[in-house]
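User: I'm putting together notes for a lab meeting next week and I want to include a structural view of one of the chains we've been expressing. I don't have a solved structure, so I'd like a prediction I can at least talk through. The sequence is below, exactly as it appears in our construct file.
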Amino acid sequence: MPFDQEEIRPSYTDKGREYYNRTNSAKYVQMTDTGFRRKIQKIEAENGITIPMITRGGQQKLVDKRILDQFRKGIYVGEEDKWMEELKKIIDQIYAER
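Assistant: Thanks for the context. Below is the predicted structure for the 98-residue chain, given as structure tokens.
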């Protein structure tokens, strides 16, 4: 079921950065909760990286919008490495800001 982008609001905003909870993250990248979680786990396992998430209010994990924007981009055949390098640059930038 497609969602209107106006319907999806960030769960938390800090210093101009927007963070989404798991459910809204999945909606933002137009996937199911389970599909998005599995995609993250697969990328982390295959590439040895960790997708940074912040914790707010206990167990709730929030994902930075910049990472979600990367997941919304298409991955074209033969350009998987380029997509992964862009994701790694975003992750490094997020860690540098902390």
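A couple of points you could mention at the meeting. Residues 80-97 form the longest helix (18 residues). The two ends are 36 Å apart (CA to CA).

User: Perfect, that's what I needed.
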